[in-house]
Amino acid sequence: MKQLIAMAIAAILLSSCGTYKQLPSTGYAPNSDTSITQSLFSDRSSTISEEGIQKILDGHYKLPQQLRVAIVKLDNPQSRNRDWWNDEAYLKNQQSYLDLFADKFKSSPRVTKTSIIPDLLVSKTPSFTNIREAAVRMQADIVVVYAISSDIYARYKLFTKPDIKAFATTQLIVLDVRTGLVPFSTIVTKDVLSQKKKEEVDDAETRNRIQQEAVLLTINDIGEKIKTFLDTP
User: Fold this and answer.
1) Using the 8-state DSSP alphabet, how is residue 138 labeled?
2) Mean pLDDT over residues 13-20, rounded?
3) Domain residue extents for the chain
4) Rounded distance between C-alpha atoms, residue 101 and residue 143, angstroms
5) Element spanning 13, H or E
6) Local structure of 25: helix, strand or coil
């Protein structure tokens, strides 16, 4: 009897072993290296190769000690949509901002030359390639690209002068002409609240003054950041 029971158990075990199926391998090993070191996404519009991205991110960059600086101003959409060419105050302000940026860089002992890239060398909507090539033609080591946007708000009060508030946002980048890298960038926004002064002829003069004050605040702030950047070894 005991022998019959043992034989039955053996038969069951053998049949279960015969129906066992091995699961397919997933190809994953617990100790395999799964680190991702480059992009796995296909981007045909990219202007930088995967090899170039790796070199840029793993490489060491240092700004030249002696710098020839070229400066270019980009028009913001607000100015392109309005006829500013007949506005004398606007044109004078834009020139003063450009000169002020040039002075900020001239104050650094590292800067040996500053120049302004004329509009003739860049398109109305320039690309980095366009700007870089224009800077090459002017033999500049770095090109400073900036854009300024500003606007006015007025809050009227009964029996008193209205409060006029202006805000300005200035964006600036430094583009290394040799490498195409951007070692410095900043965005600064400032606002000014004021009222019309007795000596001002009309509201337009007041608005222009307040708006200019807001822009100058952003430029002065950026000037301090530029000084720190250039003074860093």
Assistant:
1) T
2) 52
3) 65-231
4) 12
5) helix 2-18
6) coil
